[in-house]
Amino acid sequence: MSIVLRQHIEEIVAVTDSEFEYTQSLFTHKKLKKHQYLVQEGTLVTHEYFVLNGLLKASYTNEAGKEHIIQFAMENWWVTDYQAYITQRQATLNIDCIEASELLSISFENKKLLCAELHKMEYFFRMKASLGYVAMQQRILSLLNNDARLRYEQLMQQYPTLLQRVPKLLIASYLGVSRETLSRFSAS
């Protein structure tokens, strides 16, 4: 697990052995079963999570009971309800496991401490947040500007293994289409 985290960090910044040992000491290991919740709407969000293996989905359920999938999170991705995490408030999202998952967790306080102690880790987290913001902006623009078929094609081009790992109903929800429409896309 430590090798995966270190490789992930070193995609952006180089760390010494002692810096990595300190960084790693601020994380805790967490295992979840398929369908188990990581974050539930209405609960306080105090941790951010790095996915070692497995697959999760972050979703919002509206007042009518319709689930809207905001994000999938797979290996080497970070996930939490960021609005709740950053403001230290209750979650508006649910995050649950599509597959059994293994995660590393860092608390809000430990992340603040780490960033204050190691400025290269502050830079790392800032870059990850910036890249996450870019991805979210691209997703919103795709939803606003592209038809459903193009959104499907873009998703399959970016994440080709996702269709094998995620039930079609969830992919359809993520794309904002019906399951039947998605089946037509995947058949052609």
From TrEMBL:
It holds the Pfam family cNMP_binding. Gene3D superfamilies: Jelly Rolls. Residues 30-109 form the Cyclic nucleotide-binding domain. This is Crp/Fnr family transcriptional regulator.
